[in-house]
Design brief:
Strand content: 15-25%
Strand order of the largest sheet: 4-5-6
CATH architecture of the largest domain: Orthogonal Bundle
Low-confidence stretches: none
CATH topology of the largest domain: Arc Repressor Mutant, subunit A
Number of helices: 4
Mean pLDDT: 91
Structural class: alpha+beta
Distance between the termini: 53 Å
Length: 137
């Protein structure tokens, strides 16, 4: 896929699409560093600002993390299965910064609030939680 500066779609979205496709195809693997902003800009003939905007889109989707030394594909963690029974309420929302740090989740990753029938609420990472309906009693 090439970036077309004459296309109707902004170049930063085209770059985000390209990198996202590489992540989903396994070309870019969890933990792998992405090319430097200057490298993406030179390779595709776009500005560093466009590259930064593309990285912001991917961070917002929870696909990459950015540190002082650049961006890398976000590591995946093993999922946790949570049993859900009748009367349980599930809500999803974006976490606060302290919640994000507590759960160790990246930007753009939602949390699940699971409220049991007794009123107890659990906060779970949305990207690594599998909700499973319990058999009827």
């Amino acid at each position: 896929m090439t970036i077309d500066s004459n296309a109707d779609r902004p170049v930063y979205k085209q770059l985000a699409d390209l990198i996202r496709a590489q992540i989903h195809a396994g070309v870019l693997r969890p933990g792998q560093r992405l090319a430097a902003e200057n490298d993406y800009a030179a390779e595709h003939g776009i500005s560093r600002d466009s590259v930064r905007r593309a990285m912001a889109v991917l961070r917002g989707e929870g696909l990459i993390v950015t540190e002082l030394r650049g961006s890398r594909v976000r590591e995946t963690e093993e999922s946790v299965v949570v049993q859900i029974s009748s009367g349980v309420t599930i809500t999803t929302r974006m976490p606060t910064e302290p919640e994000r740090k507590k759960l160790g989740i990246g930007e753009g990753t939602p949390v699940l609030l699971v409220t049991d029938t007794d009123g107890e609420t659990r906060l779970l990472a949305g990207d690594r939680t599998v909700l499973q309906v319990s058999d009827a009693e």
